[in-house]
Amino acid sequence: MSKIIDGKLISTMIKDELKEEVALLKTQGIHPGLAVILVGDNSASQVYVGNKKKACEYVGIKSFSYELPIETPEADLLELIDTLNRDDQVHGVLVQLPLPKHMDEQKVIMRISPAKDVDGFHPQSVGALSIGLPGFVSCTPAGIIELLKRSHVDIVGKNCVVVGRSNIVGKPVSLLLLREHGTVTICHSRTNNLTDILQQADIVVAAVGIPKFIKGEQLKADAVVIDVGMNRDENGKLCGDVDFDSAKDHVAAITPVPGGVGPMTIAMLMKNCVLAAKSNHC
Ligand code: NDP
């Protein structure tokens, strides 16, 4: 039986550490604040935003919530971001994606001050990550590295295979694994011989978006598997990009879905907010 990497437990540990840090910051007059903007009534987004608010409450971060109707003009959203960029009580600004079709996501992300870009999606944050400068690292990739480190998985020199090359998961997690001295291979929909590559992998990060796409027999027996996928299977049940049933007795360690990477994403968002509050007060 593989070791199950418990993201829920690790994320709670992180949030508990942050809770203590926030309490200390408050004694120094620093009250971390996060503004979350939701446009429209996408039900999944509403759940994500609700979870972020709950995490803020738990850690002691003040959350400022903005729920805008779907027909809000892009200019109004940009104006709200400008206001929040100037607000001293707000240390992090987050716009929940996806946005309605009439809005240009890239333009909206670029409007957030890089000093408050706690999602780490601003090109300045992405650029800083790619050349090894300090900056906000996007939350899911940062959470993956934290999961590996807190599970005592050695990354140095290891063959790390990332399946998926999206801007929000695949690319940034590849850069982070490289920063940790892993030997990184990035696979995508045009990759030939995926199974051959997977069979060389000491660490696999699956961020494909296809339910149960990677099977246990494609993986090495001593592999550590981080499953980022959040999909619904044929019965509507939440599942990952890795076929957990065939992998769980086959590999050294694996994250479950749910309860693996998901909770880490929110914990790292809280961590970025605290970092933002501290840096904005330097
Ligand atoms: P995207 O759809 O943006 O990217 C998917 C990637 O998978 C693409 O790079 C694509 O390649 C690649 N891919 C598709 N088909 C294949 C294939 N047959 N073989 C190899 N690679 C393939 O997804 P995201 O990165 O946004 O998300 C991935 C998953 O992670 C989703 O299930 C999502 O819900 C989940 N997720 C979970 C989060 C969490 O907090 N737990 C946060 C973010 C995402 P190509 O570039 O060539 O098209």
Automatic annotation (TrEMBL):
It catalyses: (6R)-5,10-methylene-5,6,7,8-tetrahydrofolate + NADP(+) = (6R)-5,10-methenyltetrahydrofolate + NADPH; (6R)-5,10-methenyltetrahydrofolate + H2O = (6R)-10-formyltetrahydrofolate + H(+). It comes from the Bacteria. It holds the Pfam family THF_DHG_CYH_C. One of its GO terms (molecular function) is methenyltetrahydrofolate cyclohydrolase activity. Residues 138-280 form the Tetrahydrofolate dehydrogenase/cyclohydrolase NAD(P)-binding domain. PROSITE patterns: THF_DHG_CYH_1 (PS00766), THF_DHG_CYH_2 (PS00767). NADP(+) binds at residues 164-166. Residues 5-119 form the Tetrahydrofolate dehydrogenase/cyclohydrolase catalytic domain. Its EC number is 1.5.1.5, 3.5.4.9. The keyword Hydrolase applies. The keyword RNA-binding does not apply. GO terms for cellular component: cytosol. InterPro entries: Aminoacid_DH-like_N_sf, NAD(P)-bd_dom_sf, THF_DH/CycHdrlase, THF_DH/CycHdrlase_cat_dom, THF_DH/CycHdrlase_CS, THF_DH/CycHdrlase_NAD-bd_dom. Pathway: One-carbon metabolism; tetrahydrofolate interconversion. Keywords: Amino-acid biosynthesis, Histidine biosynthesis, Hydrolase, Methionine biosynthesis, Multifunctional enzyme, NADP, One-carbon metabolism, Oxidoreductase, Purine biosynthesis. One of its GO terms (biological process) is tetrahydrofolate interconversion. Homodimer. Belongs to the tetrahydrofolate dehydrogenase/cyclohydrolase family. Catalyzes the oxidation of 5,10-methylenetetrahydrofolate to 5,10-methenyltetrahydrofolate and then the hydrolysis of 5,10-methenyltetrahydrofolate to 10-formyltetrahydrofolate. This is Bifunctional protein FolD. It comes from Cellulosilyticum lentocellum (strain ATCC 49066 / DSM 5427 / NCIMB 11756 / RHM5). The lineage of its organism: Bacteria, Bacillati, Bacillota, Clostridia, Lachnospirales.
